[in-house]
Each structure stands twice: as C-alpha cells, then as structure tokens.
Amino acid sequence: MNTRKFNQFLNQISEFPIPVIDVPISLDTYIPIAISDKNIDLLNFEISSSLEWEKYIKSFLEDNNAKVAFGGYLEKRNIYDRSDYFKSLAENEKRNIHLGIDLWCNVNTKVLAVLDGEIHSFKNNTNYGDYGPTIILKHQIEEEIFYTLYGHLSLSSIENLKVGNTVLQGNVIGLLGSSSVNGDYAPHLHFQIIKDLENNFGDYPGVSTEKNIEFYSRNCSNPNLLLKLPI
C-alpha cells in the first residue's frame, strides 16, 4: 500500500477522535503548542532544563484553561541540541525534525492503546533526551500491519509486560513518567505511527535529520489521522 493510500486507510479507521490518554480529559481542554523557534516564549527560559519546561507547560495550560498541550508532527525543534545523542556537526544531519505527536500533561496520566493489537516490544531507552520507558504495539486491520509507539512512560509501565499479550483499544497500557525517568523532559507522551519497524525492538527513531526526512515522513504517518485532535 503506497503512502497516500495508507494515510487514507488510517484516516478511515474511525470518523471520531481516538483517545490515547485518559478518557475523562475532554478534547475541549486540549490546546495546540509549538515547540519550535516560532514560539517566542521559548526565548524566556532555559530550554535545556526539564524543571523550567515543567514550569512553562504548567503556566501555558493554566493561562489557556487547558489540561493537555499537543502537537509537533514534522516540527523542527532546537530542544534536541542539548543532547549529544541528537547532535551532528553538519546541519542537515542533526536529528531535529519530530516524527510523532507530543501530548504534554500531568505525570502519571493514563496512556491508552489507540487500537486493538498486541505488545510487540518494550524497552527503557536511557540515552539523555531519549524516550525512557517505551512500549510498541503491533496492529493488524484487514491485511494491513503497522505499529504505534508510546514513549516517555513511567518505569512501572514496562514491568510485568509480555511480548505478544493482547491489548484492546482503550486499555490502559502505562502512565506518563517524570523527568527523572523519561529522558529528562517535562511529562508528556510521544505517540508515533510506524509502518515498517525495520527490525527495531522497543525503540524507533522519533526525530529525523533533514537528510532522511523524506523516508521517515513516509514511514511515520501523521498520528492525527487517528487522534483527530482539534488543530
């Protein structure tokens, strides 16, 4: 299935928004946020500090009477410059283009399976600025197989898991982790759709270089095709 048809397929799975975090959080309380140089607020605090990020996100949500800030698909971000894990001397080889949607909200918020599937893999990705605890689900609808990735979870989220276990849409699969375990970020979920997992286990790139973005934008469709958040 080519990219255009695959995206149409994803979009047609549900005509209604599919929740990926705690259902009682109404979509009316979601608000878009930019984590790029288009957001001048980022000039007013130290973006390398997870504590400062938490203060900023909390203030942003309170100022907008919201509970969840979201966005980031194919967004170019400077925040990754703080970590050697993403750096490169060549500008077009820096990993700074985000491949999923982030949902910023409170630590320990419940994370939900977006669709029926099974646990493909899980892992604690401990590089500075990485996902921390991560779960990947495998889905098959009709003849189409694809994967969803849930990053920045709590350590308890990956305890007592078993590869191959069935999950149903809406099942709680984990909780959002704190900055001490989630790669040193303010609490948030990184949610990503992956067509070809390329033999990865418990991990898959969530940030691309400009050099490789053509491939990754084809392989990692816009998560909002499923979530249908009010952008």
Provide a short characterization of the protein structure:
The protein is an alpha+beta fold and 231 residues long. The chain has helices spanning 3-12, 50-63, 213-219, 224-227, and strands spanning 30-32, 68-71, 97-98, 101-104, 110-112, 117-125, 132-141, 144-151, 166-167, 172-175, 188-194, 207-208.
Overview of the structural elements:
With 231 residues, this protein is α+β, with helices and mostly antiparallel strands. It has one domain: Glucose Permease (Domain IIA), CATH 2.70.70.10. The protein is 15% helix and 25% strand. It has helices at 3-12, 50-63, 213-219, 224-227, and strands at residues 30-32, 68-71, 97-98, 101-104, 110-112, 117-125, 132-141, 144-151, 166-167, 172-175, 188-194, 207-208. The longest helix has 14 residues, at 50-63. It is globular. The mean pLDDT is 93.
Task: Record the SSE blueprint.
Blueprint (H helix, E strand, L loop, with lengths): L2 H10 L17 E3 L17 H14 L4 E4 L25 E2 L2 E4 L5 E3 L4 E9 L6 E10 L2 E8 L14 E2 L4 E4 L12 E7 L12 E2 L4 H7 L4 H4 L4
Parallel strand pairs: 1-2
Antiparallel strand pairs: 2-4, 3-12, 4-11, 5-10, 6-7, 6-9, 7-8, 8-11
**Could you name the CATH homologous superfamily?**
Glucose Permease (Domain IIA)
The average pLDDT score comes to 93
CATH architecture: Distorted Sandwich
CATH topology descriptor? Glucose Permease (Domain IIA)
Elements, N to C (H/E): HEHEEEEEEEEEEEHH
Provide the number of structural domains: 1
Q: Determine the N-to-C terminus distance.
A: 27 Å
Strand order of the largest sheet: 1-2-4-11-8-7-6-9
**What is the general shape?**
globular
Give a quick account of the main beta sheet: strands, pairing sense, barrel closure.
8 strands, mixed
The parts where pLDDT drops under 50 for at least 5 residues are none
Structural class: alpha+beta
Q: Per DSSP, what share of the residues sits in E-state strands of 2 or more residues? A: 25-35%
What is the count of β-strands? 12
Radius of gyration: 17 Å
Number of DSSP helical runs: 4
How helical, in percent, are the residues? 10-25%
State the name of the first-level CATH class. Answer: Mainly Beta
